[in-house]
């Protein structure tokens, strides 16, 4: 089975992203390109990275009215990413229209609650309840709206999967034991995330900021 690690290449620097992907390509299952990369390099940059022949996860986390999100996704159709993200909080119609606009082979996954947020953040933006309740509510919405899966933390993935056994579960906010957490708040180890039911893991800085990114990807892979 190919690696379940998708490396988040969070840089605006095309040459750096390309060099990193080239180094780690045999020890990851795909690469994730996010806002930082896309704002600097656009569709041409994504195409160039796709030449490395690794699945591309385009993490642009769309969140707007249904018409705008659908048109934005249509504009990306020629890129045929393996995975793309929208925010579940955009609501049912937006999720339905996002899925309808995406290429057939692209998994549309809905971000439930960012892994950089915790209970107090949730309260400060006006939501009642805790992260678990919030993730479950949005997982149920995503499932019934017909997208392919959700993004959640490793702390909620087991419950989300129990609710949606056929869903696709993306887990970021993973850190090797004793790894630096940075701005992430709901963190588990890669092994814990896989044991809890993650379909794929998103790993950024533990790989990209390592002295030897390829070795870091291998080391994480060896724990799975
Ligand atoms: O809830 C979410 C959704 C997406 N992300 C993205 O994953 C990576 C994580 O990077 P690390 O360096 O491993 O922290 C990053 O690209 C985020 O945009 C997330 O962290 N949490």
Automatic annotation (TrEMBL):
The active site is at residues 59, 61, 64. GO terms for molecular function: orotidine-5'-phosphate decarboxylase activity. Its EC number is 4.1.1.23. InterPro entries: Aldolase_TIM (IPR013785), OMPdecase (IPR014732), OMPdecase_AS (IPR018089), OMPdecase_bac (IPR047596), OMPdeCOase_dom (IPR001754), RibuloseP-bd_barrel (IPR011060). GO terms for biological process: 'de novo' pyrimidine nucleobase biosynthetic process; 'de novo' UMP biosynthetic process. One of its GO terms (cellular component) is cytosol. It catalyses: orotidine 5'-phosphate + H(+) = UMP + CO2. Homodimer. Belongs to the OMP decarboxylase family. Type 1 subfamily. This is Orotidine 5'-phosphate decarboxylase. The gene is pyrF.
């Amino acid at each position: 089975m190919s690696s379940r690690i998708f490396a988040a290449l969070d840089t605006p620097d095309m040459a750096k992203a390309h060099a990193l992907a080239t180094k780690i390509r045999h020890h990851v299952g795909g690469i994730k390109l996010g806002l930082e990369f896309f704002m600097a390099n656009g569709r041409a940059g994504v195409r160039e990275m796709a030449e490395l022949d690794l699945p591309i996860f385009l993490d642009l986390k769309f969140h707007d009215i249904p018409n705008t999100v659908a048109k934005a996704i249509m504009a990306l159709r020629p890129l045929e990413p393996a995975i793309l993200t929208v925010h579940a909080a955009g609501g049912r119609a937006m999720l339905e229209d996002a899925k309808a606009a995406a290429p057939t082979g692209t998994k549309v996954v809905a971000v439930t609650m960012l892994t950089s947020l915790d209970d107090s953040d949730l309260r400060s933006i006006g939501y009642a309840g805790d992260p678990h309740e919030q993730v479950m509510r949005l997982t149920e919405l995503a499932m019934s709206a017909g997208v392919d899966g959700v993004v959640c933390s490793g702390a909620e993935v087991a419950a989300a999967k129990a609710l949606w056994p056929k869903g696709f579960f993306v887990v970021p906010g993973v850190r090797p034991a004793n790894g630096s957490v940075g701005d992430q708040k709901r963190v588990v180890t890669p092994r814990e995330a896989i044991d809890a039911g993650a379909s794929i893991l998103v790993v950024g800085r533990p790989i990209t900021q390592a002295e030897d990114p390829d070795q870091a990807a291998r080391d994480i892979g060896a724990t799975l």
